[in-house]
Amino acid sequence: EKELGDGFVPDGATIPEAKDAAAAEAKEPEHVYEIYVCHMNIIRYFVMRALQLPPEAWLRLRGDNTNITEIVVHPDGRVSLYRFGDIGHLPLDMVTFH
Asked: Is residue 34 within 8 Å of residue 69, measured between CB atoms?
């Protein structure tokens, strides 16, 4: 018999197995993805701030239109720049700068 507060138990699973599975799921880090579509100047500035570099250094970076930049914030707070200005998803004849 279910008591108040007991959750759903999948068919064939015992209560302890279900609780162990729920505990394992709770320990998994949550992955959050945010997608921004904006001008490259904003991306360059944001990358500088995320990496704790001088904001004016964004002028040293170049990026083509429709590129992909990926910044990862790790659970411990470290920030990694995985991709910057990646245009590998475009055929060469579609790459533009201006």
From this structure: no
pLDDT in tens, 55-89: 889 889 988 888 999 999 988 889 999 999 999 99
Q: Is 38 helix (H, G, I), strand (E, B) or coil?
A: coil
Place of tokens 């015992």: 14
Which backbone phi and psi does 78 adopt, to 5 degrees? -65, 150
Prediction pTM value = 0.64
Given a contact cutoff of 8 angstroms between Cβ atoms, the answer to whether 22 and 7 are in contact is: yes
- DSSP class of residue 94? G
Following CA atoms 75, 76, 78, 81 in sequence, which dihedral angle do they give, to the nearest 10 degrees? -20
